[in-house]
Amino acid sequence: MQYKDFVGIDVSQKTLDVVLRSTGKYLRVANTEAGMAKMLKRLGAAGAPEAGALFCFEHTGIFSLPLRLFLAERGILHVQVSSLAAKRSMGLKRGKTDKVDAAALADYAYRFREDLQPAPPPNRVLMEAKRFFTLREQLVRHRSGLMARLGVEQRMLKVNSKDLGVRIQEKVIRQLTQEIDRVEQEIERLIASDPELRRNHDLVTSVKGIGDQTATYLLITTENFTLFKDWRKYACYAGVAPFENSSGTSLRGKTKVSQMANKTSKKLLGNCAASAIQCNPELKAYYHRRLDEGKSKMSTLNIVCNKILGRAFAVVKRQQPYVDLHKFAA
Asked: pTM higher than 0.90, yes or no?
């Protein structure tokens, strides 16, 4: 795709630092809708029409979300790039400023213009579901911390149920559990409100081992299976794809997964694998057969993760629920 120009934007909580690559024009505006409108007006005056220019900025979560919505609503081409990928593309740098980072993002968009795909319009339902999913994770983390602390106190200090500290913690744990249930109900309502999301959610949960939370997170991170072409790319993203580690004749490291991964996705897929080898006869037999052959337990679980992930992408692609053929085998 041919672009007329490239705009790099360094996003922070309060400001946007913008650099137009063709002229080097720099401006700083507020990270608000008024500030973004001002940005477009000033860039237009600098010879960068909205149509045909590619805007590039890092994915910074809630800070970059208003910018993405603003650009998408106006049909302006834009890409969100990984912070790590953008940083490593800059090479060795001495010092750091927001202006330099914005210019580097504009250069990044120019250098990789053939490979970068403009972001699709965001799905509002998925955005809300992601917000509540993140909230649920935080609530679960707080509850787990309190439960662990309470267990230690009861075991080591021998405190009884009438102790004030115990009663306070138990009350907070009950309240957190109620709020977690409310958040999960809201996530279910959001998914059910979109027919396509509901359909894909049902298809993914038809795969044995995948539950509601994992299915929802797959929908969120793949933007309803539109961001990743196949399951192998998502396996890399989730950190369950093994990579060779060798160089010449001197380095012969073990093939292993990368630490550059979405740890939440990796954790959920690991839970799915642990569940699948209990409830799926085919995967259970495969798991024990590899262990009997002397294979690593963790590498076998990782393979099960990939099998489950491949099935999830397959049922969505075919738009048909998963069929367990193992039970029909002679």
From this structure: no
- Alpha carbons 22 and 25: distance in angstroms, whole number: 8
Name residue 15's amino acid. T
Pairing outcome for strands 5-11 and 15-20 = antiparallel
First to last CA, the chain: 52
- In order, the DSSP letters of 138-188 are HHHHHHHHHHHHHHHHHHHS---TT-HHHHHHHHHHHHHHHHHHHHHHHHH
H helix count then E strand count, the chain: 12, 9
- Burial status of residue 294 (CB atoms within 10 A of its CB: 0-12, 13-18, 19 or more): exposed
Q: What is the pLDDT of residues 276-317, one digit of tens each?
A: 999 888 899 999 999 999 998 999 999 999 999 999 999 999
- Which H/E stretch holds residue 48? none
